[in-house]
């Protein structure tokens, strides 16, 4: 059922967008949108449009809670900015193929015939093809924040006041100069408008711009119109000039301030995208969960300019906390106290945020966020709330970075799970192949041994001596084959378990080769086996294992070549290696089989001369043993026909005195 649900979730074309705000009823709206998304198996997004407004601490806290609620209910959080909220929402709707919008009923009402339309009316007109679901606001909430233009404006700093006074003084001085040079009054008015623009650019907020506009009119009327040092004027048109000058100054100052605010918001948005891009780029280079956590915490520390605490989940619970900081902080050690750890453990167990600015463990120094993805919690990140809390912009970046961290850890976890599943499947396949090979290939020699023994036991008196000797020989050959198979299986088991230890000694290669050939003396009847080894080649090896390698290679040549074929075993020096070759002039190995010839349990399509299938572990074992010695095992063609197996061993550093 779960798989079907996920399939429907990705197959649907529905996309539900809920609008976030600081309204107390916004939580109910978010829940409603989440239920719709769940029922329709739709993509779920929550959008918040930042405007040039000032909201109080209570509304800011409520907005953060609503954003957290939307994220907890599975929404993708989108933060954008602009003065026209409806335009920003409709533009996102157009670009993201939103099919339904869920929004609360606006507390604002159209006043009179020429009143401004409400947000809902603007959305209906700008996005006519989208279903808009309006949830009534039962709490009748009224926003407490106002535009910055007057009451919500920031208090100017001493620097801003000084810049305003200096700019107006310079404009007045230039006005006196122009008046002395008999320039028209319009030129002086233009200078004051330019001064207001400079004030808007060089100061923060609206107050200095508005004050500069009013003072420029006052200064112009008091100092630069007749009669001087008086607000009376002889010219009839001067009042109109003052009014136009004031309107122009206010308009230009306001526009300049708005452009600055838009530039600031754009810069914030660009900074947020850059932080996320850098984080994503660094996370892609991370090779472990520790690297992922380190990248995330260092990015957050650089962003917030404070120490970051992190805890990871171990096999037996939460591990010790670690501090990450761009700068040295002598007071950061208190963030690792037992009380802070207790808060982090609660977050790790419950998967929800806790600590400062929350209902759970509100007296903690840090706000603890769970690194959570796919229902799994991989760790906890703690963000100190002192000396000041991160604002909504910084909080949105923090949430995005933590989500990136959780996604990276989840991807690493899934990759590890897939790798373990692949290893398990491979092990199961190897086990199945081994059992199938044992059940199939051991049956023939065991049946032969059992049948021949039964014949000797019950009918031995009726057999002539030559027949008995042949039966004895068959039993011996089958037993030798079984012993060779069992030895190879034991070697493979020890290799896989890591229990095969090399006992390295300096050995003469020709002696090792001759010993291996002697083991197959009886089996090689019918084949011509020759040995060509250079004298005094001393190599570092485990003699018993190398004998096993040469025996396996010669045994394969005996099995897969016809009677009368030639097999040559040779050894020579090449640089710092001893090179040993086993060559035959049989039919060779097909090209499509060569890439798989060293794979476990691969037997290919070749038929074995004695009608017994090979287990397909001999060459795998040989390759593993040679590589343990630091050498290589390769296969090449023997022109005009046949094949050559070549392996290398490191020469001994001991020199022989002739």
Walkthrough of the structure:
The protein has helices at 2-11, 26-40, 57-72, 85-96, 119-126, 158-180, 185-202, 207-223, 238-285, 289-304, 338-350, 392-441, 443-459, 465-497, 509-519, 543-560, 618-628; strands at 15-19, 43-50, 53-54, 76-81, 100-104, 131-135, 146-147, 308-314, 317-318, 322-324, 354-355, 366-373, 376-384, 505-508, 528-533, 538-541, 566-574, 577-584, 633-637, 643-650. The chain is an alpha/beta fold and 658 residues long. Strands 8, 9, 10, 11, 12 and 13 form a six-stranded antiparallel sheet that branches. A five-stranded parallel sheet has the order 4-2-1-5-6, with helices on both faces. α10 packs antiparallel against α12, α15 packs across α16 (543-560) and α16 (543-560) packs antiparallel against α17 (618-628). The radius of gyration is 43 Å and the shape is elongated. 29% of the residues are buried. The model is unreliable at 1-11, 144-152 and 607-613 (pLDDT under 50).
Reconstruct the topology from this structure.
Layout: H1 2-11, E1 15-19, H2 26-40, E2 43-50, E3 53-54, H3 57-72, E4 76-81, H4 85-96, E5 100-104, H5 119-126, E6 131-135, E7 146-147, H6 158-180, H7 185-202, H8 207-223, H9 238-285, H10 289-304, E8 308-314, E9 317-318, E10 322-324, H11 338-350, E11 354-355, E12 366-373, E13 376-384, H12 392-441, H13 443-459, H14 465-497, E14 505-508, H15 509-519, E15 528-533, E16 538-541, H16 543-560, E17 566-574, E18 577-584, H17 618-628, E19 633-637, E20 643-650
């Amino acid at each position: 059922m779960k798989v079907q649900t996920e399939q429907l979730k990705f197959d649907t074309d529905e996309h539900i967008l809920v609008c976030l705000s600081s309204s107390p009823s916004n939580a109910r709206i978010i829940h409603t949108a989440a239920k719709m998304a769940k029922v329709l198996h739709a993509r779920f997004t929550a959008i918040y449009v930042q405007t040039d407004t000032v909201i109080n601490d209570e509304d800011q806290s409520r907005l953060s809670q609503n954003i957290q609620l939307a994220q907890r209910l599975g929404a993708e959080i989108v933060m954008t900015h602009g003065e026209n909220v409806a335009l920003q929402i409709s533009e996102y709707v157009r670009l993201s193929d939103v099919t339904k919008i869920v929004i609360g009923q606006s507390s604002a009402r159209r006043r009179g015939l020429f009143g401004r339309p409400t947000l809902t009316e603007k959305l209906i007109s700008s996005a006519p093809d989208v279903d808009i679901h309006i949830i009534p606001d039962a709490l009748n909430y009224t926003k407490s924040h106002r535009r910055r233009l007057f009451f919500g404006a920031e208090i100017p700093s001493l620097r801003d006041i000084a810049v305003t006074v200096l700019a107006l003084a310079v404009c007045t001085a230039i006005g006196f100069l122009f008046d002395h040079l008999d320039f028209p009054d319009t030129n002086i008015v233009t200078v004051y408008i330019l001064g207001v623009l400079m004030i808007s650019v060089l100061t923060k907020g609206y107050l200095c711009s508005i004050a500069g506009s009013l003072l420029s009119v006052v200064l112009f009327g008091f100092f630069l119109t007749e009669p001087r040092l008086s607000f009376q004027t002889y010219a009839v048109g001067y009042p109109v000039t003052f009014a136009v000058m004031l309107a122009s100054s206010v308009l230009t100052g306001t526009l300049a301030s708005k452009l600055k605010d838009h530039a600031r918001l754009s810069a914030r948005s660009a900074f947020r995208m850059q932080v996320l891009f850098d984080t994503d780029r660094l996370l892609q280079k991370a090779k472990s969960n520790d690297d992922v956590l380190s990248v995330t915490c260092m990015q957050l520390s650089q962003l917030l300019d404070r120490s970051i605490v992190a805890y990871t989940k171990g096999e037996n619970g939460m591990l010790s906390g670690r501090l990450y900081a761009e700068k040295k902080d002598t007071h950061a050690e208190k963030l690792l106290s037992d009380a802070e750890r207790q808060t982090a453990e609660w977050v790790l167990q419950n998967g929800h945020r806790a600590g400062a600015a929350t209902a759970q463990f509100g007296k903690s120094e840090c706000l603890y966020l769970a690194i959570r993805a796919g229902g799994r919690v991989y760790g906890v990140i703690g963000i100190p709330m002192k000396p000041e809390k991160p604002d909504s912009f910084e909080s949105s970046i923090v949430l995005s970075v933590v989500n990136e961290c959780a996604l990276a850890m989840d991807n690493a976890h899934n990759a590890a799970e897939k790798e373990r599943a692949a290893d398990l499947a491979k092990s199961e396949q190897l086990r199945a192949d081994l059992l199938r090979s044992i059940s199939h290939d051991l049956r023939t020699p065991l049946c032969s041994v059992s049948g021949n023994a039964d014949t000797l036991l019950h009918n031995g008196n009726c057999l002539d001596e030559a027949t008995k000797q042949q039966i004895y020989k068959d039993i011996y050959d089958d037993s030798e084959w079984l012993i060779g198979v069992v030895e190879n299986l034991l070697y493979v088991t020890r290799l896989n378990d890591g229990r095969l230890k090399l006992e390295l000694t300096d050995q003469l290669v020709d002696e090792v080769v001759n010993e291996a050939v002697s083991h197959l003396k009886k089996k090689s009847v019918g084949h011509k086996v020759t040995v060509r080894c250079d004298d005094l080649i001393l190599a570092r090896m485990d003699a018993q294992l190398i004998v096993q390698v040469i025996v396996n290679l010669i045994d394969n040549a005996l099995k897969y070549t016809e009677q009368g074929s030639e097999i040559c075993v040779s050894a020579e020096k090449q640089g710092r290696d001893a090179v040993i070759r086993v060559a035959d002039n049989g039919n060779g190995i097909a090209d499509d089989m060569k890439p798989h010839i060293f794979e476990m349990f691969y037997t290919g399509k070749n038929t074995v001369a004695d009608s017994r299938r090979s287990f397909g572990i001999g060459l795998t074992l040989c390759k593993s043993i040679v590589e343990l010695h630091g050498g290589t095992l390769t296969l090449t063609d023997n022109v005009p026909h046949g094949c050559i197996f070549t392996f290398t061993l490191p020469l001994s550093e001991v020199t022989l005195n002739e």
